[in-house]
Amino acid sequence: MADYPSRRRLLHRAFGIAALTLPFASTMALSQSGSIDWQQAKGTSLFVGMNKHVYTDTILPFIPEFEKLTGIKVQVESYSQDEYMNKRLVDLSSGAGTFDVVMMDQSIVQYSKAGWVEPLDAYLVNPKFVDAAAYDVNDFLPSLTKNTFINDKRFALPITGEAQILYYRKDVLEKAGLAVPTTFDELYKTAVKLNDPGKMAGILLRGEKIHTAWNSSGFVWSYGGKIFDNAANPTKATFDSPEAIAAITMYAKLLQDAGPVGVGNYTWYETVSDFQQGKAAMYLDASVFMSQIEDPKKSTVSGKVGYAGMPAGPAGAMANTGAWMLSMSASSKNKPGAALFLSWITGKETSLKIGEAAGIGARKSVFEAPSLKKKYPAAWADATIKSMMPVEPTPGPPRITAIDEWLDIYGGAVNATILKQADAKTNLTAAAERMDKALARSK
Amino acid sequence: MRSVASDALTRMRTWLLPASFLAPALIVLIIINVVPLFYTITTSFQSYYLPRSYDRGFNGLENYTELIFDKRFWAALGRTAIFVTVSLAIEVALGFGIALMLIRQRWGLGALRGLILLPIIVTPIAVAFVWRLLFSPSLGLLNYLLGYVGLGPFEWIYSPNQALPALILVEVWQHTPELVLIIFTGLLTLPDDLTEAAMIDGANPWQVFMAIKLPLLKPILMVGIVFRVISLLKTFDVFYIVGRGGPGTSTETLALYVYATGFSFLRMGYASALAMVLFAIVLITTILIVRWGDVKLG
Amino acid sequence: MASAHHNDRPVSFGDVLNTIGLIIVAIVFIMPILWAFLMSLKTRADALAMPPKWVFTPTFEHYQTVWSDGSLLAYTQNSLIVTLSATAIGLLLGVPAAYMLARMRFRGKRSLLLGILSTRMIPPVAFIVPFFVIFTNLGLKDTYTALIIVYLTIILGFVIWMMRSYILEIPLELEEAARIDGCSQWQTFRFVVLPLCLPGLATSAIFSFIYAWNEFLYAMILTNRHAKTLPLGIYNWVSYEEVRWGELTAAAVLAMLPVLVFYFFVQRALVRGLTMGAVKG
């Protein structure tokens, strides 16, 4: 794996060079005190399939510690997103057993219902693998943990979350004498005022069909709408309700009146590049892009960016969150090794190290750690944490098997609205009808 | 016109050499194609939703009848037809023009030919990403350059109306050189004495080309066209990376729809049926070209 | 040989026009590649700057990053082994078959030719899953063998058809003459037909090489750790939050080099074919 310069800098900032040797000593201590026999799968190999992600890059330097602790040889294989999704699907669905542990996303419902991933409850209460007291399973953020349960069984452990936040150009807003918007109406007015066609867009949002789904869900909730009738067990699409229509109308209006030319096919490739190049005044998207925007080698706007939480709609500010998790493949040939790995890497201690190194995590204890707050732009940390720990947890990604059809159908409707192919009502109503069919078929 | 001697030659008396020349290739072709083909055909008659593979079972012609009423399929088919026809027409015209220019070029032939052929060798993955950036309305080179001659700004792949033409542009850019190479090689293989004789007889170069070169070139040209059509009908890589069929479904071709149905929507049975229909479409198109183009098969 | 004759006559206005035209065509075709090449030498902020920076301090950091990653070398090796093997096997099996299919007459030949061609028509998307299942069961997943087999499905039919049509261009009289001179069938093929279709052989080899070299979809699904090929190595530089333009283009530029080497190597066959043509004329 490449050791990216930027990541290396982060690591050095986190520990100082000398500190890199420290974690080893502490895991030794753990292995002596805990109930777990870390050496029980000694001599085996473990294959971990990962998506390319900050988390993946961050854990790599820690892997040798685990190998030393357990005598298990770990091979982390990371792939670009599309490649990874295809590989994971083909491997787990065919039972080929190439991967023992896989990085999991919103496909969790599909994978668990299909029986491709292992329920983890038995492992979590088994003292052979998990020291319950030290592990503290209740420390995970509720908004992220919620998604790991399917029919009351736990199929994954959360590792990192992302939340929707508002990036804005401090200098541009200041020059225009505008305040940071806190509601969608303010966001719209500010964006339109700052929009300077051809030079600087007022606001960036992803517009490509599949990419709109995650971003616009936060809009729908903030307007008091729901994507599906019953979050825990969806039976009917409700993204054609008046609230949802109002939300999607706003999403489209923002882009039509203050977005960049050609936004209808914008994925994060374009949004992040545009923002880095100073082509937009505001940008509403996942918190994970901060590191790209603040890197002076890649970005012309680093240091000029302010961060704010998700703007509020009639029903409050309901940012969408995205969770990455780890699951165990049901066709793994080394389940004890996989259980040890999960126990170790999602444990409190390793999670904190990862959090300190890259500002990511899924545990309350990580985000509340003073060491973490010291390292990152305070406003970014505040905005992220505020969005990640909402008073009332947001529904999260739809808990359905036909998740990709949802992305296609619902995202397609949002996209068509942005492209003015029809109004939000027409598009969403037709889409809801198609979604219900897909839902029935995949039951 | 075949002479008696050539008849004797073609009707080879021993079967051993012909068999040993033909058999290995045929056996390998059959082995590597028949098993997966059988699998796909079987699956196309099944109800097979990947996350519920335990429910997999035959459902007769259901997948094929669903396809008849699938608007998205028909839209993709129409789009594919437009894409193939337009791309092919441009590629053949340009390919011929450039190959003829190359043939008469006096200086620097090797260098010029090498440069023109470069697009073929670039990995489609890289092509797709680079063109995606070239097309960017805000950060792209194309709009910048076209701005100088007073054109644009265009939205290219970012607009539902311009996306397909933009992808045709990429396709033409990458694959015209293939036809250039095929036609150029064909022209080289032509025996010179024929053209020389005609020239001596007072025919002008155009007449020589139309009356002598073109008919002789036809077999190789038709093969070039057949292979272009086949791969155009199956185009996937660049479309997938440039826009995944977007914006909306404005650039979703049949191959992309098959992919989405199988690997995103996980409807393996239906996807197999779509794939078989795509296969049939390619086959029929090829047979038609072979027939109309009078490709020598005998 | 065509250009040889041109050299005998005086330079005409048409020659100059032809040259200018070809230079313009060449510029259009290499523009995007040149742009990618420049990008591989730019820092990220420069790479995406608009208006574009034509004058900049080149940086080789992306090449360094890509190179020091280590895996690129392994991917190159994998790609070379798979591509060269598939191309060689494709030609070895395909050329003799093409000869017979060009010269022999038998019943059902038409259908056989179409059948061979139809192996090229199956959308790869349809074959991914069956191939994955088959290779997993045979224990061949993630091996060179698997990829070579898969690439033969792309190459073999192509070689047969391509070579057959080049062979059809060769005047039958030449073979007859050889036969009358006492050459055996095999000798006729080896010493008359093969040398005459060298340009076609070169072209087929180049195309087969390129198809296998650049293939993405099969390689993505069928390889994991041992047999990953170069296009996947290039795709690797698309990370979670950004396209790493510098590294991606640097890797793409490096991936072109072996194809260029192969092209120039095979090019000599083309040139030799040309000389044959001259002798023939």
TrEMBL record, chain A:
Instruction: Please give the name of this protein.
Output: Sugar ABC transporter substrate-binding protein
Instruction: List locations, semicolon-separated.
Output: Periplasm
Gene Ontology cellular-component terms for this entry are:
periplasmic space
Query: Which domain of life does the UniProt lineage start with?
Result: Bacteria
Gene3D superfamilies noted in UniProt: Periplasmic binding protein-like II
**Signal peptide bounds:** 1-31
The record's similarity note reads: Belongs to the bacterial solute-binding protein 1 family.
Where exactly are the transmembrane stretches of this chain?
A: none
Lipoprotein: present as a keyword of the record? no
PANTHER family assigned: ARABINOSE-BINDING PROTEIN-RELATED, DIACETYLCHITOBIOSE BINDING PROTEIN DASA
**Presence of keyword Protease:** no
Species in which this protein is naturally found: Microvirga brassicacearum
What keywords appear on the UniProt entry?
Answer: Periplasm, Signal
